[in-house]
Design goal:
145 residues; alpha+beta; Arc Repressor Mutant, subunit A
């Protein structure tokens, strides 16, 4: 936090409090603590388990279930973007713009694909009563053999 940034009584940046309120979320202590961990490191991809580990390391007392719930609430509110790698693994991206991802399988790591490197065209017509919300491309990578 810069010296010019105002803080609340809990020393959390007011911008995070406002960000949560603007998204329709009550800025609880746990949400503010997790938001600070998530958004203070720039754009990144994080799993619930990794964020929970960061919270424990930062002496933030929060259960893994609360981390999962908070990440899903942030996603629903548009603060994060869920990147489902498969049915058992979801990462949360702090960059909510339209972009695609590489998944490095050996490292279980998600990396942004530069926007100019993928063009998606010839999308199918959505079924009646439906519309395409977005297209997610995940390019799975492995080391060359």
């Amino acid at each position: 936090m810069s010296g010019t940034e105002k803080t609340t009584e809990t020393h959390e940046p007011i911008c995070l409090t406002g960000k949560l309120r603007k998204a329709g979320l009550r800025p609880t202590r746990q949400r503010l603590s997790l938001a600070q961990l998530l958004f203070s490191k720039g754009d990144r991809h994080v799993s619930a388990e990794a964020l929970h580990e960061e919270a424990v390391d930062a002496n933030v007392h929060v259960s893994l279930a609360t981390v999962y719930n908070t990440l899903h609430q942030f996603n629903e509110a548009g603060l994060l973007r869920a990147v489902a790698i498969d049915s058992s693994k979801t990462y949360f991206d702090t960059n909510t713009s339209d972009h695609h991802h590489f998944f490095i399988e050996k490292e279980n790591r998600v990396v942004d694909v530069p926007a100019s490197q993928i063009t998606v065209s010839d999308l199918p017509v959505a079924p009646e009563g439906m519309e395409i919300e977005r297209v997610d491309v995940i390019v799975r990578l492995r080391e060359k053999r």
